[in-house]
Design a protein that fits this description.
The structure holds 2 protein chains of 2 kinds. By secondary structure, chain A is an alpha+beta fold. Chain A has 14 helices and 23 strands. Chain A folds into 2 domains: about 120 residues, Rieske [2Fe-2S] iron-sulphur domain (Rieske Iron-sulfur Protein, 3-layer Sandwich); about 220 residues, Naphthalene 1,2-dioxygenase Alpha Subunit, Chain A, domain 1 (Alpha-Beta Complex). In chain A, about 30% of the residues lie in helices and about 25% in strands. In chain A, helix 10 packs across helix 11. The model of chain A has no long low-confidence stretch (mean pLDDT about 95). The chains are: A alpha+beta, B alpha+beta. The interface between A and B is large, with 42 and 34 residues. Bound molecules: FE2/S2 (inorganic) cluster and fe (ii) ion.
């Protein structure tokens, strides 16, 4: 299908044409119309503590640098030397307290991207690159059009115009409020380790899976059963399995009808929330000690409000999946039409006891590390989905389940039951709008 | 490092340690998961650090950090008929070499062994290669040497994973 096709015809209220997943020309348009426009999560400010600390990151097709500038602000710059175009940072992360120096001809830049020095500067006399001349501004590294920081989480947009970060997130900003509020000090600190996993599928297949409440009992049955059996072995020895076993066994101990009791909340711009199911507020000594730190920081009433927020996933469409009570997130970086990178991070709640960090760490290691006992089976499904969609065995992807039955109230669509395919329909309604439809 | 000349490192000890490492590789290549787990002491740990600078897996992110209970979860998953992603054609071949006994404490029965590994994995019509170093901290038991801690550092462990690791390396 050519990119000139009317893209709106690909998205219908209850089904989507497979070419939205498999056509390389549509992928290129997605880069231009979605990823180069929306707010992209680039990193947490605690990744770059000191002046010159940087991490490189992809925004759509663009290699970018997130760097701490001398004035304390976090800047996001194109990773490109204005001279002959070499990337300035070839490493994933590093420290450049004196600014960036190009390894090719030694042009130098401050940490806000402005030009610091050019070798053989007299050679530019009388040219358009001379100080004060027409193109002199192009001697600076190009910054992202907009950068915004919400409670330490840094986003950038390559479009000069558009909604502010907070407007764009809308109710989905609860992802960051929930994770930060759970910290007695009201903020989080990143653990400077990024697991990176590549899946052989279109990026949208990953996002659709995040709030797919039917799949865990099917896809993760083997891991759920395995963890449950070992939990029973603990019990036989009169011991208690760590909570991280429960993260896994919940897949098999939660019967499919139970998933219907949960809910998805679907907002504009494709964002959505899956409510929690793991029961992350047991009354063990660690949790009680943690509650005490919250009580002291916020008082009883506010503590109860904070802990009553019951969220499993927040999806900030199209590039971020956050699990606030588990203190982790996954950033989605589409590489090609059939290849997607996820970058997986976790956080410490400032002021919370170590045991609460260890709970999050258990989830990070077991579910989100490259030896994952869970995502292995998801990634397998993603690859199989992409292979099937690339075939001529059918043209449409079905999102019919409970179509037309969800509760719509203004900008919020609440799924009629947890397994309604409302989140996928919601994602595609945003996709259609970005891609130039209605 | 001076251990090569260490009189406590007898040819018999060297042979016993080598055979243990070969047996472990054999268990992995032949999917004898319980046999693999049984090579660890009751409190034994299999650890693949998230970064080479780490000195302990306790309380820090790891690629694997598994005691025998977690190893049993992994084994039970691999054996489950619905471990969907592991039911494709799959196999590994481990080569373990450059085995050096780093320290030997005959009084306590503790031995530290360094080695290098190279693994070819085949799954779903594609091959992957992993290579790196093992450090086995062994202790003498009634059943022979057993692993208290195995540290696995892959030279390509820091890069993006094309797919994931489902069995121990
Ligand atoms: S390309 Fe950077 S200085 Fe020439
Ligand atoms: Fe899943």
């Amino acid at each position: 299908m050519a990119a000139t096709t009317d893209l709106t015809k690909l998205v219908q209220p209850d089904r989507v044409h497979r070419s939205a997943y498999t056509d390389p020309a549509i992928f290129e348009l997605e880069m231009e119309r979605i990823f180069h426009k929306v707010w992209t999560y680039v990193g947490h400010e605690s990744q770059v503590k000191n002046t010159g600390d940087y991490w490189t990151v992809l925004i759509g097709r663009q290699p970018m640098i997130m760097v701490r500038h001398g004035d304390g602000s976090v800047r996001v710059l194109h990773n490109r030397c204005p001279h002959r175009g070499a990337m300035l940072c070839g490493n994933r992360l590093g420290s450049a307290p004196d600014g960036f120096t190009c390894s090719y001809h030694s042009w130098q830049f401050h940490t806000d991207g402005s030009l610091k020095a050019i070798p053989l500067e007299r050679g530019y006399k009388g040219t358009r690159f001379e100080t004060g001349a027409a193109d002199a501004a192009m001697r600076n590294m190009k910054p992202a059009a907009r950068v915004a920081n919400y409670r330490g989480f840094v986003f950038a947009s390559l479009a000069a115009d558009g909604p502010s970060l907070e407007e764009w997130l809308g109710p989905a900003k609860i992802a960051f409020d929930d994770i930060c509020d759970r910290a007695p000090k009201g903020e989080v600190e990143v653990v400077p380790n990024c697991f990176r996993v590549v899946q052989q599928s279109n990026w949208k297949i990953f996002l659709e899976n995040q709030l797919d409440a039917l799949h865990p009992a099917v896809t993760h049955e083997s891991t759920g059963k395995a963890a449950y059996e070992v939990e029973l072995e603990f019990e036989e020895r009169h011991e208690k399995a760590p909570l991280s076993y429960h993260f896994l066994s919940a897949f098999s101990t939660t019967p499919i009808p139970k998933w219907d009791d949960f809910q998805t909340l679907n907002y504009s711009n494709g964002h959505s929330i899956l409510t929690g199911y793991m029961g992350l507020r047991p009354s063990d000594p660690d949790t009680l000690a943690y509650e005490e730190t919250l009580r002291q920081a916020y008082g009883e009433k506010r503590m109860e409000e904070i802990l009553a927020v019951n969220i499993h996933h927040v999806l900030c469409y199209p590039g971020l999946s956050v699990q606030p009570p588990l203190q982790q997130l996954r950033a989605v970086r589409p590489l090609t039409v059939d290849k997607t990178l996820t970058e997986i991070w976790h956080f410490r709640l400032k002021g919370a006891p170590e045991a609460i960090y260890r709970r999050a760490l258990g989830y990070y290691n077991l579910v989100n590390s490259p030896s994952t006992l869970v995502n292995a089976d998801d990634l397998w499904n993603f690859w199989k989905c992409h292979q099937g969609l690339a075939s001529d065995g059918g043209d449409w992807v079905s999102f019919h389940r409970n179509a037309g039955q969800d509760h719509v109230q203004g900008n919020l669509t609440t799924s009629v039951i947890g397994t309604s395919e409302a989140p996928m329909r919601n994602q595609f309604s945003a996709w259609g709008a970005y891609m130039g439809g209605t | 490092m001076g251990s090569v000349a260490d009189p406590a490192v007898t040819p018999e000890l060297r042979r016993e340690v080598e055979l243990l490492l070969y047996r472990q590789a054999d268990c992995l290549d032949n999917r004898q998961w319980q046999g693999f787990i049984d090579l660890f002491t009751p409190d034994g740990i299999y650890w693949m650090p998230a970064s080479p600078e780490q000195t302990s897996g306790d309380g820090v992110p790891s690629i694997f950090y598994e005691d025998r209970n977690l190893m049993t979860v992994r084994m039970k998953r691999l054996n489950h008929p619905h471990a969907w992603s592991q039911k494709t054609e799959w196999g590994t071949s481990h080569i373990v070499g450059n085995i050096v006994i780093d320290s030997h404490d005959p009084a306590r029965g503790d031995v530290t062994v360094r080695s290098r590994f190279h693994i070819m994995e085949f799954r779903t019509d594609a091959s992957r290669h992993f290579a790196g170093s093992y450090v086995h901290h062994l202790t003498s038991t009634a059943d022979g040497y057993r692993i208290k801690l195995q540290r696995v550092d892959m030279v390509n462990g820091q890069g993006p994973y094309d797919y994931v690791l489902q069995a121990w390396v």
